[in-house]
Amino acid sequence: MAPKKNSAKRPQPSTPKPSAPARIVKVQSSDGHILQADVRALLLSSTLAATIKGYDDENKPLEKLEVNNVVGFTLKLVLEWCEKHKEDDPAIAQAEKDKKNIFIPSWDRHFLTKLPMGNLFDLITAAYHLDITGLINYGCKTVANSAKGKSTEEMRELFGIPEPWEQPSTSTATWDD
Amino acid sequence: MSSLLEMPDLVMKLVLGKLDYVSVQRLRKTCRTLRNFIDDVKPESNLSAFRILFTPKYLRFFIWFKDLENLQIEYITVDNGCRIVPEGGEYQWFFENSDFLDIAFGDAKILLDFTNSGKIQKFSFDSMCPPETSRNPRPWFLDRLHGYLKFRKNLLKIKCLDFAFLDQQEILDVLPFLEPRTLENLRLEFVGDKIKRQSFRTRKLSKIKILNSPQMENFEFHFRQSDAFDKLTEIFGEISFSDTQYMNGYKRHWFFAYSENSDNLLEITFFENYKYYAFDINKKPKIAETLNSGSQAKTSGHEPLDPRFTTFCAR
């Protein structure tokens, strides 16, 4: 039997610590939708982590987090992603930030490619506002992968770029098709 | 629905950073906003090797990227314009009243413009033009390249340069604009008809920093000349070791210690069939390997060299 390759490529999520019960808080989107999330998942967002720490430092009860720049539909996707990745080591996402070729795990590939491009852009923009490095990485790589092999015209259609371009300039002719 | 154009700049930069070079260039042509943004960011091309082949009727680019993707493109001059043929692609383009050199240079310039922090492993200029041809595209191309390199915001980083040249000016147009700290291997090949001593100004060449760089591991100077062998034997004496068989002729070697204090050895090789000469300066260990591997050549010790042969030495 062939040995399993790349089994050590990504660290496997560790089993949740049985001693720490999930701490659930409410999260409110910019259009008033209220969702629920595990604090450990929210900590993937540097922005939300700072807010949560602020509450904890002052021993104030955290009842509801308001996310003013993300709508409910997108926030739900963000929270779903965070829930799936709450055990991840943040150092991995940081290391992948500037890499050209990164490996997108199958769950994420399925999760991101099923979205229409416009929703994917919204999700990446939300991840940017909330500062979730791992989601930004996978999102950007998914956009890049979808552009690969496409002609200029196909890219315009795929990415919702309305402006028709002028006549191709001869100096860059070869890179177009 | 959001458009790519509405993404925050930082996100756009990350997307561009994860795209391959050709996709970036296609995206660059979708609209003005993206073109300006991409020209501003200049995402790294990840160019690994670039070979330009000059012939009187066409130029061929061989381009390799670090992710193992590669491209081959031919720019062909035809009666009323230029035809562009990428290898393996189903598309071809024709540009009426356009010069094939203009288009080829434009593509090369953009590729080099997007190669800023990265080091190009190998850059080669090959020529298949007879020296006397009136339609030799090399001088024109190298002149434009010189103009580009001169005003580039940083020196081009090349690890290994293979440069076929016709006169000294071509060397002077390119070499001084390369980063001396990255060049490790330099191969100059004279592709003209006959090398003339008066056409080489050694003082000018000696000012090129790159030739004195401590990073240089290997320096080669190759040329073809029918009457040079007699002169070589005049200077160095008759060769006293058995010659190596090479392509139904002889390949003859001389080895010289370059100087008392240098690690380098000068190797002169003469290919009888082709009247072809190779002057190579190597670090000693590399030569030692050659000697140990059964070559019949031998080191001739600290012999003084005729100054004309040290002109191009790396140290």
UniProtKB/TrEMBL annotation, chain A:
GO MF term list: cullin family protein binding
Record lineage:
Eukaryota, Metazoa, Ecdysozoa, Nematoda, Chromadorea
Q: Which UniProt keywords apply?
A: Ubl conjugation pathway
Q: Which GO terms describe its cellular component?
A: cytoplasm; nucleus
User: What protein family does this chain belong to?
Assistant: Belongs to the SKP1 family.
The record's InterPro entries line, in alphabetical order, gives: SKP1, SKP1-like, SKP1-like_dim_sf, SKP1/BTB/POZ_sf, Skp1_comp_dimer, Skp1_comp_POZ
Q: Does the keyword Membrane apply?
A: no
Domain (SKP1 component dimerisation) ranges = 134-163
Q: What is this protein called?
A: Skp1-related protein
Where does the record place the region Disordered? Answer: 1-21
Which pathway or pathways does this protein act in? Protein modification; protein ubiquitination
In this protein, which residues make up the domain named SKP1 component POZ? 24-86
SMART domains, alphabetized:
Skp1
Q: Name one GO biological process term.
A: SCF-dependent proteasomal ubiquitin-dependent protein catabolic process
**Organism encoding this protein:** Caenorhabditis briggsae
Name of the gene: skr-17
Q: What does this protein do?
A: Probable essential component of SCF (SKP1-CUL1-F-box protein) E3 ubiquitin-protein ligase complexes, which mediate the ubiquitination and subsequent proteasomal degradation of target proteins. Regulates cell proliferation during embryonic and larval development.
UniProtKB/TrEMBL annotation, chain B:
The record places domain F-box at 1-53
User: Which domain of life does this protein belong to?
Assistant: Eukaryota
Q: Which InterPro entries does the record cross-reference, listed alphabetically?
A: DUF38/FTH_CAE_spp (IPR002900), F-box_dom (IPR001810), FB224 (IPR040161)
According to UniProt, the name of this protein is: Protein CBG13427
Biological source species: Caenorhabditis briggsae
Q: What is the lineage of its organism?
A: Eukaryota, Metazoa, Ecdysozoa, Nematoda, Chromadorea
